[in-house]
Amino acid sequence: MNAQAARRRARCTVLKEELLSLAEPDYARFAASLLRKPSEKEPSGTAANLLGVRLPVLRKLAGRLTKQDWRENLEALSAHVQAVSEKKDDGEDGKICFEEVMLWGFLAGNGKIGRDLTLQEQFAFIRSFIPYIDNWSLCDSFCAGLKFAREFPEQTWEFLQPYFGDGQEYAVRFGVVMALTYFVTEHYVDALFQIFDAVRHEGYYAKMAVAWAVSVCYVKFPEKTTRYLDDNRLEDFTYNKALRKITESRCVTKEVREEMRKRCR
Question: Is the pLDDT of residue 90 over 60?
């Protein structure tokens, strides 16, 4: 192990100790239960190694690490997660916890473009993170932190295109959640409807992301989305879940809820 790798490993060991000090075991059991997939009896992946550090606490920690040495902390965490995941390094116990991956994701979104990195570097950091997303929380919380998308909409929109047709469930969800977070606008909404029709991944969390996105479109553009609901190519599961998401919104009236229930296939 060279000096740089040893320094990064030591940094990650200190971070893991801090995460353990911030962990709440009762919250860990609750949070892990929310990440259990429909087909599972017990949580899997990083959800099975969830320490119980609340997301606001993780974001605060990420903010501090960003101020200390953003790039070094980001690269240390990403190298650590990748090495342990690929069995190149056993780490402390041979396992990666949810919080280590989430912290990496938060740091990836914290760099200031033009000051800390270029836009293309930002996209490269995102590409490297996406394969390690293995539950909806890692995906959605990561997307929420990528606020640079509002500054560079055209480039980000282009960057997202391959993910809508990706073969991996959480890569598709990443693309769709980014779309519903940053691109439900007058300029992009018609293109979004075409994308929703084209998403064909069979993964539950990919389908649910599309359903969620349709409901967000309805809240912001009810007339346009109603026309889309009248003529779309969504499969029945996604279509019906979209209607349910609309009925669950606090932004729609009782009359809209009744109408959506009548539309179920």
Answer: no
What would the pLDDT profile of 54-81 be if each residue is shown by its tens digit? 999 999 999 999 999 999 999 999 999 9
Round to whole Å and give the CA distance between 229 and 88. Answer: 49
Helix, strand or coil, per DSSP, at residue 113? strand
Contact yes or no for 68/62 (Cβ under 8 A)? no
H or E element that contains 83: helix 55-85
Angstrom CA distances, 155 to 138, 150, 240, stand at 23, 10, 32
Give how far Cα 74 sits from Cα of 49, 79, 91, 102, 120, Å.
21, 9, 17, 11, 16
Angle, CA of 59, 21 and 170, to the nearest 5°: 45
Closest CA to 170 of 75, 105, 243: 105
Give the CA angle between residues 242, 244, 250 to the nearest 5°. Answer: 105
- Which residue, 250, 191, 187, is CA-closest to 219? 250
* Domain definitions of the chain by residue range: 1-135, 152-265
Q: Which two tokens stand for residue 35?
A: 């990440």
State residue 88's pLDDT score: 56
133-168 pLDDT per residue, tens? 999 999 999 999 999 999 999 999 999 999 999 999
Tokens for 265, please give them: 């296939």
> What does the block give as tokens for 83?
């090495």
For residue 256, what pLDDT is reported?
Answer: 96
**Domain 152-265 architecture:** Alpha Horseshoe (1.25)
